[in-house]
What we know:
Structural class: alpha+beta
Helix content: 10-25%
Amino acid sequence: MNPPDGGAADELxxxxxxxxxxxxxxxxxxxSAAGRAGLxxxxxxxxxxxxxxxxxxxxxxxxxxxxxxVSELLGEMPPERDAxxxxxxxxxxxxxxxxxxxxxxxxxxxxxxxxxxxxxxxGTEGDLVRVHPGEEWLYLLxxxxxxxxxxxxxxxxxxxxxxxxxxxxxxxAALDRGGASLLFVHTLLQSPPAELCLGGAVRRL
Length: 205
């Protein structure tokens, strides 16, 4: 027999108090959290008190709302991650970039933020406008970089940085023939990594 209200067939001990704690930690009311997750406040209340067990789609939706993972909601201990990423050469073999852009991992994988070292060659993708969910932060190491946010043009030099909502239409291009190098951090949010073009065929950052 299927459990009522789309609940899970097996008991999930500890999920109810974690759901309530996470919601309160995020400063969300029952109504606002339920609305973001596509649930009724009454249903979310039953999940938080343990009177209903959440289905996997519910857990996925609530994990997105609270900025966490299903594993954390279930109380599973994440594997220990290596905190150190060793440096390497800025250049690399074909396949490590897209349209001349070269990417190098500069942070741990599987986290809410992704950190990269990026080499932007001159004369590529200057007219490509990117729009996607998330935030972006970049810090220019060398060269000069043009960052266009909406209709506003910013020319950056070494030591300059930019931090913006990536739903703002944006373009990035190197101004010098020698290209530009930068540190780049973005939040994945609900965008699949492939859509952010980390060396793939999809032409977005």
